[in-house]
Amino acid sequence: MPALPGSLFRNPGLPGLLAFVSFLAVASATAAEDENAVRLYQRGMSLIAQGEPEEALDRFNTLAARYRRSATCALALWEIYRIQEHLGDDAAAFEALNRLITEQPGHFEKAHAAQFRIALRLLGRGPESRRTLARERPAAPVAPEVLAEMLRVIIRNGPQSETGIQAHYYLGLALEKAGQKKEAVAMHEDFAENFPRHELADDAAYQCAYIAYKDWKTMRGDSPRQRESAAVSLAWFIARFPESDKGAQARSCLMEVRLAERRELLSLARYYEGRGNARAAAIYYRQIAEKFPEVVSADAELAGKVAGAVSLEAEKMVGPAR
User: Fold this and answer.
1) CA 54 to CA 40: how far, in whole Å?
2) For residue range 228-281, what is the model confidence (pLDDT) as tens digits?
3) Model pTM score
4) Which of 49, 103, 126, 170 is 20 to 30 A from residue 2's alpha carbon, by CA?
5) What are the helix and strand counts (H, E) for the chain?
6) CATH assignment of 1-140?
7) CA dihedral for 82, 83, 85, 86, sign (positive or negative)
8) Calculated CA dihedral for residues 238, 239, 240, 244, nearest 10 degrees
């Protein structure tokens, strides 16, 4: 029996006697609760051994709902998590872990990591989490918005833990998957700004540039505004993280964007040239010379066009000869 409060012995009489009786009643009720919880837990484990996980789940759910103060409640919640994963209900498994985090002292670190594994698996990232039971049926689909909220819960549960910090990065990926591109870019920018020394900082910065690049790729036509945004974002990433392992991919994307811009400028120059509008053509030839001097120097014909554009521009500025 738990030690009796010292105040009961310092205050004899009827009030002290009533307090003592009340204490004994609470202790007795707690012991009874613990005993009932243990019986439910043992019955649930027996049903698992018999190959009846859904029947076992009913027992564990009853235990977790009725005997929240019992020490056995935490054990039941772990079994609920495992069985729900086995049955393919990731949302219910996640919620069982959340109860362990918020209601059961001593289970935070392990349950927080398990929550993160669920979120990563649903996002299509990371290895499958280890489970004592294999999945019985395919997992129920989880909406991207629900997955994003799971990651927000993980962040709230441990914002400064390593798991919580990584969840910020993956929340950016989940937001993009949910179609919230502006929010995804903002999340990645915040991550790169707030955790500049983290191993995922360059990945977050790259995602900002890559989202802009993919926006340009999916637009019909050349989309100058999206193309310029992609070029600026990719150049910014390369300058800020020159040693990143994403650098080669970023440079490849930037080259593709710049080639598209060069093709468009050359196409416009030739279009106006073909229509006999030399002044309009000269504008685009000059832009080619300014943005792609290496191309002009390697192409004699193009160099001649640029020289003609420069002469025409000079003539325009000084006026026709008298």
Assistant:
1) 14
2) 999 999 999 999 999 999 999 999 999 999 999 999 999 999 999 899 898 888
3) 0.76
4) 103
5) 15, 0
6) 1.25.40.10
7) positive
8) 40
